[in-house]
Amino acid sequence: DAKTTQPPSMDCAEGRAANLPCNHSTISGNEYVYWYRQIHSQGPQYIIHGLKNNETNEMASLIITEDRKSSTLILPHATLRDTAVYYCIVDTDKLIFGTGTRLQVFP
Amino acid sequence: NAGVMQNPRHLVRRRGQEARLRCSPMKGHSHVYWYRQLPEEGLKFMVYLQKENIIDESGMPKERFSAEFPKEGPSILRIQQVVRGDSAAYFCASSPGLADYEQYFGPGTRLTVT
Question: Which residues in B lie closer than 8 A to residue A45 (C-beta atoms)?
Fold first, then answer.
């Protein structure tokens, strides 16, 4: 079973920041937090991952709380092409996908 | 650098036939993973392989399914005597290592069993 809890759906206006929360209260000390997304029925796309520190790349930022029990994925300027199912995953090797958050970006 | 390649992209099989799905990992990646996505469901882990070794097959059905990743050539997911319930999208992913490495996914093979 997935070790994460995410809201089933969220909406975001185009151009605004999308903040996607994730709870992982049972995370172990050596487990990373990964974020992937799946656009329609394509193969999942890696977004970002982190262990303890906040991370930023060209796609998104990842904010991990100090106790590591939750995290937030931030898409700073959402576009229509960011409409997808976003998965927060905690693991060390294989990825256990939960149900994810369906993000709908509207004009 | 080419991404993860999977073929065929679409595969139709009659009940009882065999299905062979191929996955070529990204160059330099020695870890391969297979996932299955049933219609309207999330992805489920099936098996994790390194060259010539099965590391974790905890998600593989006990019968009819097998996977290999030979020293040379692509990884193969083999489904014998397919049934309608095997109809799904099968995704392969690869990574250069564990833990601190992201997995890169292929476009998937959509298997339809008639």
Answer: 105
